Amino acid sequence: MIELTELNDPSIAEPEIKKIEQEISRLLSQYSNNNSPSLEQLWKMMDSVWDELGCDNQKIEIEKINQFYQHPVWTLNGLFIEKDEASLLNRQLICDWIGKHEAEIKTIIDYGAGMGSLAKLITMNFPNLSINLYEPYPSQIVVARLSSYSNIHFVNQLNDQLYDCLISTDVLEHIPDPLPFLAEMIDHVRPDGYLIIANCFYPVIKCHLPCTFHLRYTFDVFTRIMGLKKIENLSENYIDVYQKTKNVTFNWRLIRFLEKKSQVLYRFIEIIRTLYHQAKY
Distance between CA atoms of 60 and 63, rounded to whole angstroms? Predict the structure, then answer.
């Protein structure tokens, strides 16, 4: 059940809260019979906002994309994730893994942290950890909700700090050119540090960009040549844990060459898949 009263905070101007509540209520009334939307209904709401703002996942316009990621539908998404059973399980799996490595991990950065739900769970279990949230579009509501956690801090840019662990869940599929962002993530983890990464390179919603889908087959090729070693999977091929084995100088000529090969491979696989289904049915 989505409770809009959770948005109320005395530090946020009432007109701003009302504006967000009204937009969320509008979406819920159109796509859900109550305040308990299914995941599929939530995706429909997100797609409708994408279309209303004139976004196009084939022709990226940054201004429209920025408007989309600042829209109240992402607040709704955050409220949904906090109660969704699958999301709760994934957060718990990450938290449990961090607990097993608490002796090695003192600093964490959550790259694209959303509502900060994972950071809250981690800090409730391990209050001595320092957690930075790198979130380009933090809403006033999110900042206010996390203001009481003294060890959680928002950062709007990555400085020279090296973290013991970086977490990135459902980020790279939203980025038109994800490999430089992956490189940036790796650069901000210390040698022998960890990266916990979950990607969804599938067209479940329109803001998952088709130009990233080839990475569903080859993502680990790029992590290896960028100095990472996969050490564990936490959730049925969704959440992967990598260790940064060494500092490497990224060979962008090779990376871009392999990226083109990956894109060609993806198109070939999709053609074969389509022909197979046509022949089967």
Answer: 9
What pTM was estimated for this model as a whole? 0.93
| pLDDT given at position 10 | 62
Higher-scoring residue by pLDDT: 87, 9: 87
d(CA 193, CA 254): 25
Strand 152-155 vs strand 228-233: parallel, antiparallel, or unpaired? unpaired
Exposure string of 197-224, with b = 16+ CB inside 10 Å and e = fewer, is: bbbbbeeebbbbbeebbbbbebbeebbe
Mean pLDDT of the chain: 91
What is the length of the chain?
A: 281
Q: Between helices 39-52 and 73-81, what is the axis angle to 10°?
A: 160
Cβ neighbours of 274 (radius 10 Å): 10
CA 198 – CA 93 distance, rounded (Å):
12
Report CA 194 to chain centroid distance, whole Å: 17
- The amino acid sitting at 209 is L
- Extract the tokens encoding 275: 């022909």
Q: State percent of the chain over pLDDT 90.
A: 72
Distance of alpha carbon 267 from alpha carbon 103, whole angstroms: 44
